[in-house]
Amino acid sequence: MYIIVAGGGKVGYYLTKALLSEGHEVLVIERDAKKCDNINEELGSVAVRGDACEATTLVEVGTGRAEMVIAVTGDDEDNLVVCQVAKHMFHVPRTIARINNPKNEIVFKKLGIDVTVSSTNLILEHIEQEVPTHPLTHLLTLRGDGLEVVDVRITPDSTVVGKPLREIALPADSVLALVINRERGVQIPTGDTVFRVGDQVVAVTKEEAEAALRAALTGG
Amino acid sequence: MPRGYSYEVEMKVVIMGCGRVGARLAAMLDAEGHKVSIMDVDPYSFRRLPPEFNGTALVGNGIDMDVLRKAGIEEADVFVSVTQGDNRNVMSAQIAKYIFNVPKVVCRIYDPVREELYHTLGLETISPTKVGAHLLREAIGV
Cβ of B68 under 8 Å from any chain A Cβ? Predict the structure, then answer.
């Protein structure tokens, strides 16, 4: 597959390296001459110096036959414009943009970028998972439906400890998928499942119901 | 309404970018009696506003929805983006038009190619490069 990567910073460099090793034809567009030279030296002649928002640059690198354009610069506005120009001027079938400000995710979706990757959000999610004080962790957002998969820890001060599931009022759009306990292993919860301290509950919930779900399971 | 003013309806205008053009436009609209708020990432740029300017000057990045809200974009009748960066202008204009549904959005794009693209995509755009070259050609005459 011919893939164009806009931005030859750290993300662009390692992304290109990975895509090349998977056998793709990859071309990096980078404004900075020094970064270009580095990439060309280390990964072979795959970098072109130029502004990926300029139509002339994109013509030069044969964007018309590219199957994918991935914009990974550190500036959201540049990533947006690269993807829009590629899509509307060169009819590139698939555009992917890196987002730095998580709030821009809705903007990009609304403006027709196929896929967005929010680097800030990804790091945040990992931090939440690593920091045990967070009773609720996001595991995955299901695209398009406003649904997410979350992980809730049952803490000693939780009001559900010792109670069976049927006695607990869950918010309307939340379903508990799994209860994981160190001794009992992984269970699909039923009405009789009793919660213990340390249980890890994997649930599917609507974004809006997230706070209510946390309150229902932790009493906080 | 005081006499001598050229407006009939007071508009709420949000301007992003307080360069020469942004500041001049802000001063013009303000003098006409419109409600102007102008944003720039660099507070030093507000020196370009005249001392009698009555509007609001706000430090912040116009591609951030929270900053735009603070500048009053939700009630704005007009949004104008005139920063030095074409892409910033394009992005904030699209946010104003498609997310905040501002009725009148005008966007400056230096690059004529990008200007034509975003014009066909439905933005109201002005390319000073195109306009400037054209005016100069006319001034040369023959």
Answer: no
